[in-house]
Write a structure and sequence with these properties.
flat; 8 strands; alpha+beta; 3 helices; three-stranded mixed β-sheet
Length: 160
């Protein structure tokens, strides 16, 4: 198959003609359709996966970077911040409920396990608390799109 022999473009960029096979594209209409979408044409499942993986990356960077001054770690941390900013521009946010008090019926998290405490409760916590976060809570435009997965511990009389 031979490439088109000639391509013409109107000066207002509203129509493109390929002389061997006429094709007309209304760029102004296409632009208004794209800008009217409100969000990038990415599915919620993909946004959730990006948010979860970014949260996990951020957790790992924080563990490795504590007290370190390695320039590569600073660059990696800056990249995580930029990625989070990109998600925020798509109105996607994630929340780590670690050490928060757990209330029965909390719809934003799924408890995957209950464990005995291995440390005193966080300051101010009077009931069970989130001991470990396996997946963060993910929201888009303030609406829940993925429940967090957590391990919850119950306060015991020994830790009071």
């Amino acid at each position: 198959m031979n490439p088109p022999s000639h391509v013409e473009s109107k000066t207002d960029h509203s129509c493109l003609m390929i002389t061997e096979a006429p094709v007309s594209v209304d760029f102004d209409h296409l632009g208004s359709l794209i800008s009217g979408m409100g969000h990038a044409p990415v599915g919620e499942a993909e946004l959730v996966e990006i948010a979860v993986q970014l949260w996990r990356l951020d957790q790992r960077v924080q563990r490795v970077a504590t007290g370190g001054s390695d320039p590569e770690l600073r660059r990696l941390s800056d990249s995580v911040k930029r990625l989070r900013g990109a998600l925020e521009r798509l109105e996607v946010d994630f929340e780590d409920p670690l050490h928060r008090e757990y209330n029965d019926g909390w719809l934003e998290v799924e408890v995957v396990a209950w464990e005995q405490p291995d440390a005193p409760p966080p300051s101010g916590v009077q009931g069970p608390w989130v001991k470990q976060t396996l997946r963060p809570i993910v929201r888009r435009s303030g609406q829940l799109i993925s429940r967090g997965e957590v391990v919850v511990t119950q306060i015991s009389d020994l830790n009071r």
